[in-house]
Design brief:
The complex is a heterotetramer of chains A (131), B (223), C (540) and D (431).
Chain B lengths: L31 H36 L1 H10 L2 H26 L3 H31 L13 H33 L9 H26 L2
Helix pairs in contact in B: 1-2, 1-5, 1-6, 3-4, 3-6, 4-5, 5-6
Chain C lengths: L2 H13 L8 H5 L4 H30 L9 H20 L2 H15 L7 H21 L14 H4 L4 H28 L12 H33 L12 H12 L1 H22 L6 H14 L15 H28 L9 H24 L1 H7 L3 H25 L1 H5 L5 H27 L14 H31 L47
Helix pairs in contact in C: 3-4, 3-5, 3-6, 3-19, 5-8, 5-9, 5-11, 6-8, 8-9, 9-10, 9-11, 9-12, 11-12, 11-13, 11-14, 11-16, 12-13, 13-14, 14-16, 14-18, 16-18, 18-19
Chain D lengths: L10 H34 L17 H30 L6 E8 L2 E5 L5 E3 L1 E5 L4 E7 L4 E5 L4 E5 L5 E5 L5 E7 L12 E6 L1 H9 L2 H8 L2 H11 L26 E2 L5 E2 L4 H9 L23 H12 L25 H11 L25 E3 L5 E3 L2 H9 L22 H13 L2
Parallel strand pairs in D: 1-5, 4-10
Antiparallel strand pairs in D: 1-2, 2-3, 5-8, 6-7, 6-9, 9-10, 11-12, 13-14
Helix pairs in contact in D: 1-2, 5-7, 8-10
The chains are: A mainly alpha (131), B mainly alpha (223), C mainly alpha (540), D alpha+beta (431).
């Protein structure tokens, strides 16, 4: 875990700007912005074709590329130290844990999803089988 | 988010010295470099909590999409994807200008910072207006909360309003934060050694944009 | 304490953070982490007392079969308020907000936390949440602190105010955690590398990570509950198309890690106290640190062991049961390491050491009863019975509350600059031990006999155990009152001043005077050795 | 030692208890060992005098760490394995099981057998046969727990869950609700009666009341429900005004409501809505929040039957209300005062506002009323002796018990003194 060890120096002298965050040249910002727009158009166009359940995967893939672009360049994540990377990634990991934790529960749950309200209508076998 | 970035009283030099030569505001128990990196780490931690807030809603969205696949499929046809796409472009552009604002602040060009931030705030406003139009359209179709047709897509609309409502709230907060950061630029406070507020504001704004990048395909496109 | 020490102690006292700067306003808008710690402590003790009173009222009602003095609705409100107050208002802020705030900067050799104003802002969010909870007392909820849907969506009682209060309190917890993580990363003294950090700092770090990463999830689920109650959006209520089990998933995703928020700082304090009073380095420092971080990490994967019978699928229950056992191992490692620290030490049974040994005993019971509940087939029987009530009281009260009391006694000379009366403190310790075990051991037996929890009335065969438990609860209450009053009286009127390092402990916080001035250290302390170098004779 | 689990009455019990006792023995051994070591260290290495003795600088030992990582891991793996295996046995339902339908509802359990037989609060099962209880809830979460059978499962609205067990011994066992569900959560108990197979089959076939119900026309079932559900307490059949509007000529009549809105035909939907959500449309001149909602207590068929019954009240023929409240051919002289009081309790429809089981309907319950004292609305207190009850029957508005609405009509002139005496005798008997 690399740290900026707080080297003490005379408080009155101006701190060296390079100790602060990175500056990103303008053309990089422009390229990132344009590619974001292009990706948006792509994701809309692709959604026209039906890939069955791959729709979701494709859409999420494109969205993730766009998200990475914004995070790495616009948010300067590329030049941050490892601790910030860790705390940027952990919430996504926890989202994954939450989804997996809940989805290993769902498909195997017993019984159908929407029986009507009262038992009268639930199990036909019980319904008014008075002889 | 003023509470996140820590500043003592701004007792640096007189107004006329060029921005690059001014020392950053004195933080009473840390030197400027540590204060900057501390603020950055603190902001990323706060972004982590925001992502987790939306993670809960995305999980709920996934669950209900799995339960009511047909209803979600039909309901997402109701949404106007053209408006959605326009909104996405607006937010991407506002993210772009927010990044430029940070870049300007890093070079001490306070006037440019104000210009860029105001463009971002304006884009946020446009986004909210378009959102209001969409909500209005739903209201007229009776599909707003409590409307007579609400029950038709009640499960989709419940999650839809939660997601877009919370996101819109975060857009408003983001606009306030950017405005707060621009007030400091108006007072020509930013310099290569001090631009933390605008960077934190821009980080928050980029997060709001990030969330919309995922919301747009999930709600509008995957029909 | 001869005359010369007396006024020398008095002069240090007058220069300390307690006296400079003067005036109530300086306390209310202080940025000093030590004062904020005391502000938190005063609020916490009030709510600990309030929650305790509700508990004693419940115990009185449960003493005998049938209606004693309150009707079922009031009883349901009582156990809800006891839960909400004790968890959200007392123990979750608990050790991190009081001892974390006070000791963390001192232990790191820093002047203050990373964001002092955010620290004060967190306190006032806590106060806002507390006020909302008090307003909520006017129409209290009767859903239990778990707010399970669909009952919490349909009941007419004040669920919205109580959940809103919990949401606001969650933010205070998030911001405190955020503050501590940045402080530990960015403000360590020169030479204080990660593996020279005291175990308490590691405990606070692991706790803060959970606070930051788990609290937003419950915040959002409570907001969804409020939105569902207000606008009828069908998220959790099956009548509107929602899924009540989803609420349980989201709720327990936070509420299991929160038990580690409560107990990890207490583990840290035990790791501080035992080496000092055994005059021996902490046994297996690295293993204790890795198990703290390990517990915090694994804590996020095991939440559904609270839901084994809640209607989740069988494969899911099996997976969560197996993963839950992964948490038991690090806890066991910690206990072994604490006890091994005492081997061939020079042990002095001061009050904090007594609490530490009590902690080991109580937490052994807590840990082993946790194994019952993690075992799938056995949990089907024990779920939602008094066995679970006893288990989590052993972990929370036996763990976190005893940890808080131990920390208060251990750092009391540093906090107040005075020595408390050890005889009264030890008597209080004995009363707490007797009362606590007398209250909750019978409840294990009640659980084994199959008595469900949250029962206002019960079949007659459970009668005697409930009466014993009620008697124990009152002794327990008296014990805590005695311990806290003893500390309070000494804090305000005590005369025996403490020197900077009364226990000759190794730790940066003992290099500052007691009580320390606002700036903690006059010059930046430098660290060049591990946190527990007590043993004089190096074996190898 | 520490063997406190209830009797082993199901096929799961032996396995669960073995695992439970295994964990108990290991835990007790560990606690005694570790605490013993701690106390021994504390005593053996106590600080003598006021200066510390030499202490070795031991930082740790990798060997020991490995040992006390491996040992708990082994125990955990062993216990976890059996936990999962025995759980799988609990959930594996053999296919020739007897299936019973259970319905959890705020504060009672209803059971229904495959031949349509229904019971409330009592589950009767044969010994030795695998039983599967298929459960759902009509309102909030509940949980079906039979300690002696070591089974438990939450009961969730809009979904099924099940428990499977095989009773080994006949006898009566507790059934608890273990998921908090409101005021009477602790009262939501039922009885599991395990009987021999022969007796179970006989009990299952004896359905005298079921037969009768199936031959009646819906309107007759509606008439019976009119009494059993207590509608007769507030809605008369002869046009007279009790607490609520009379049912006479109600169907398709014009109605004006308290909020000024009007409907010109009181049709089926209006009646159904008023049964489920009475406060939605309160008729002008009647007070709201008095009629309890029957949502969950009356299902769609039953409400349909009541509507059919109301349709017959068009004033053409005198309503014959079966279920024996008005005409009674019983010779009253032969009855004891208490029995006469009980008959009056039903005839004068006290039944619909005053329950006998302690639950609050509209008026205070008769259970334990005799000699009870308490507070009255607007201050003052009462002691339920003979003349207090008499005063309350003749002019009920004078003394209204705190927490209850002033909704009781006066019985002045409808009850003679000795009839009131009989009622008092009956009230004394309701413990």
């Amino acid at each position: 875990m690399s740290e900026n060890s707080s080297h003490s120096h005379d408080a009155h002298a101006l701190p060296d700007p390079h100790d602060f965050g990175h500056t990103v040249p303008y053309p990089v910002y422009l390229k990132v912005f344009v590619s974001l727009l292009v990706l948006t158009v792509i994701t809309v166009v692709i959604s026209r074709f039906d890939f069955g359940e791959f729709n979701l995967v494709v859409a999420m893939l494109i969205a993730s590329i766009k998200a990475l672009l914004v995070a790495l360049f616009f948010m300067h994540l590329k030049f941050e130290n490892k601790i910030v990377w860790l705390y940027a990634g952990v919430p996504l990991f926890l989202l994954g844990v939450m989804l997996i934790g809940i989805f290993i529960d769902n498909p195997y749950r017993m019984g159908d999803r929407q029986p009507s309200r009262t038992t009268e209508h639930i199990a036909p076998k019980y319904n008014g089988s008075s002889h | 988010m003023s509470s996140v970035a820590q500043h003592g009283t701004t007792d640096f030099g007189s107004m006329d010295t060029a921005p690059e030569h001014r020392a950053p505001p004195h933080v009473h128990h840390m030197d400027a470099v540590t204060a900057y990196h501390a603020a950055k780490l603190g902001m990323w931690l706060f972004l982590a909590t925001e992502i987790l807030l939306f993670a809960v809603l995305f999980t709920a969205f996934a669950i209900f999409k799995w339960y009511y696949f047909a209803e979600f499929h039909a309901a997402s046809k109701e949404l106007n994807w053209k408006l959605g796409m326009f909104n996405t472009a607006v937010l991407l552009f506002s993210s772009f200008t927010a990044a430029l604002a940070v870049d300007a602040a890093q070079h001490g060009q306070n006037r440019k910072v104000v210009k860029n931030l105001f463009i971002s705030i304006a884009c946020g406003g446009i986004f909210l207006i378009v959102k209001a139009i969409e909500y209005g359209a739903k209201y007229s179709h009776g599909m707003f909360i409590g409307g007579e047709h609400f029950h038709q897509f009640s499960n989709f609309l419940s999650i839809y309003y939660c997601l877009t409502g919370l996101h819109a709230l975060h857009v408003v907060i983001g606009m306030i934060v950017l405005f707060w950061a621009s007030t400091k630029a108006m007072r020509r406070m930013y310099s290569p050694v001090y631009y933390t507020p605008v960077e934190l504001g821009a980080l928050y704004w980029h997060l709001v944009d990030l969330i919309w990048i995922y919301l747009f395909p999930l709600l509008y496109l995957i029909g | 304490m001869d005359k010369q020490d007396m006024n020398e102690g008095q002069s240090v006292f007058n220069l300390s953070y307690l006296k400079q700067p003067k005036g109530l306003w300086s306390w209310l808008v202080t940025l000093d982490h030590k004062r904020i710690a005391l502000l938190y402590l005063s609020a916490l003790i009030v709510f600990f007392f309030l929650g305790g009173v509700f508990a004693l009222l419940m115990r009185l009602e449960l003493a005998h079969v049938g209606k004693q003095m309150i009707d079922p609705d009031t009883y349901n409100i009582l156990f809800t308020l006891h839960g909400v107050i004790m968890i959200f208002l007392f123990i979750v802020p608990g050790i991190p907000a009081v001892l974390g705030n006070f000791c963390l900067p001192l232990m790191l050799g820093a002047k203050d936390v990373a964001f002092p104003r955010l620290n004060l802002f967190s306190y006032y969010i806590y106060v806002a949440g507390a006020i909302m909870a008090i307003i909520g007392l006017s129409n209290p909820a009767d859903t239990g602190w778990t707010f399970y849907a669909p009952y919490s969506v349909r009941t007419s009682t004040g669920v919205i105010m109580m959940t809103a209060a919990a949401f606001v309190l969650g933010f205070s917890s998030i911001l405190t955690g955020l503050n501590f993580i940045v402080t530990i990363h960015r403000m360590r003294a020169p030479g204080l590398t990660w593996f020279r950090l005291p175990v308490f700092v590691w405990g606070i770090y692991a706790t803060s990570v959970i606070q930051v990463l788990a609290t937003p999830v419950v915040g959002m689920s409570l907001v969804l509950l409020i939105v569902e109650r207000m606008f009828g959006l069908g998220i959790f209520d099956p009548k509107l198309g929602g899924d009540p089990v989803l609420f349980q998933h989201l709720f327990w995703f936070y509420s299991h890690p929160v038990v580690y928020i409560m107990v990890l700082p207490a583990f840290g304090i035990v790791g501080e106290v035992i080496p000092v009073f055994s005059r021996k380095p902490l046994f297996g420092y690295k293993m204790v640190v890795f198990s703290s971080v390990g517990i915090a990490a694994i804590g996020f994967f095991v939440w559904a062991h609270h839901m084994f019978v809640a209607g989740i699928s069988d494969p899911s229950a099996k997976i969560f049961s197996i993963v839950t056992f992964a948490v038991a191992v690090p806890t066991a490692i910690k206990v072994f390491n604490w006890v091994s620290t005492m081997y061939r030490g020079s042990i002095s049974l001061t009050t904090p050491m007594l609490y530490a040994m009590a902690f080991v005993f109580l937490f052994l019971i807590a840990g082993t009863t946790g194994v019952y509940l993690a075992t799938l087939a056995v949990d089907v029987f024990y779920h939602d019975t008094y066995f679970v009530v006893a288990h989590f009281h052993y972990t929370i009260q036996g763990g976190a509350v005893i940890g808080l009391i131990m920390g208060l006694h251990y750092w009391f000379p540093k906090i107040s600059g005075k020595h408390y009366n050890t005889i009264v403190a030890n008597i209080a310790w004995a009363l707490i031990m007797i009362g606590f075990n007398l209250t909750f051991l019978p409840q294990f037996v009640l659980g084994m006999e199959g008595m469900p929890r949250r029962y206002y009335d019960y079949p007659a065969e459970f009668q005697n155990l409930h009466t014993i438990s009620t008697v124990g609860a009152f002794i327990n209450g008296v014990g805590y009152m005695m311990a806290l009053i003893n500390l309070f009286v000494t804090f305000v009127w005590g005369k025996r001043f403490a020197e900077a390092n009364p226990y000759e402990a190794i730790g940066l916080e003992w290099r500052a005077p007691s009580p320390p001035p606002t700036e903690n250290f006059d010059q930046q302390p430098i660290v060049n050795h591990g946190p527990y170098d007590y043993g004089r004779v190096a074996l190898h | 030692m520490f063997r406190f689990l209830p009797e082993q009455a199901s096929n799961h019990a032996a396995k669960v208890d073995w695992l439970n006792n295994l964990i108990t023995d290991i835990s007790v051994a560990c606690i005694v060992a570790i605490c013993g070591a701690m106390l021994y260290f504390a005593f053996r290495y106590r600080k003598q005098g006021n200066s510390d003795q030499e202490t070795p600088h031991i930082e740790g030992s990798n060997f020991l760490e490995i040992v006390w990582t491996a040992f708990p891991t082994l125990v955990c793996v062993y216990v976890a394995y059996y936990g999962v295996v025995y759980f799988a046995d609990m959930r594996e339902v053999p296919n020739e099981e007897l299936e019973v339908m259970a319905e959890g509802q705020k504060w009672k359990w209803d059971f229904k057998y495959s031949n349509g037989k229904k019971t409330t609060g009592e589950l009767v099962v044969p010994v030795g046969k695998p039983i599967k209880v298929l459960m759902t809830s009509t309102d909030v979460l509940h949980s079906f727990f039979i300690p002696a059978m070591r089974v438990k499962a939450d009961v969730i609205p809009e979904r099924y869950t099940y428990v499977y067990f095989e009773p080994l011994k006949t006898g009566d066992y507790h059934i608890f609700c273990t998921e908090y569900c409101g005021t009477e959560h602790s009262g939501m108990r039922a009885r599991l009666k395990v009987v021999s197979e022969a007796e179970f089959n006989r009990w299952l076939e004896d359905d005298s009341d079921l037969l009768r119900l199936s031959r009646l026309k819906p309107a007759d079932i509606g008439a019976e429900l009119y009494v059993k559900s207590g509608c007769n307490a507030c809605h008369s059949l002869d046009g007279s005004r009790l607490v609520g509007p009379s049912f006479l000529k109600l169907y398709n009549s014009a109605r004006e409501f308290a909020d000024g809105s009007k409907i010109d035909k009181a049709d089926e939907n209006y009646i159904k809505e008023s049964v489920i959500n009475p406060n939605a449309k309160v008729v002008k001149g009647f007070s709201p929040n008095l009629m309890p909602s029957f949502d969950g207590q009356l299902n769609a068929d039953q409400i349909g039957a009541i509507i059919e019954f109301i349709k017959t009240l068009d004033g053409s023929s005198k309503a014959i209300v079966s279920g024996g409240t008005t005409s009674s051919n019983v010779d009253r002289a032969k009855l004891s005062p208490k029995e006469r009081g009980e008959l009056l309790y039903k005839e004068k429809i006290c039944i619909s506002c005053h329950s006998l089981d302690g639950s609050k309907v509209i008026g205070p319950s008769f259970k334990g009323l005799w000699e009870r004292s308490g507070k009255l609305v607007g201050g003052g207190s009462y002691k339920a002796d003979a003349d207090y009850i008499k005063r309350s029957i003749l002019e009920p508005q004078a003394e209204v018990v705190e927490g209850y609405p002033p909704a009781m009509p006066s019985y002045q002139g409808q009850l003679s003194d000795d009839e009131i005496g009989d009622i008092i005798e009956f009230i004394k008997s309701v413990k």
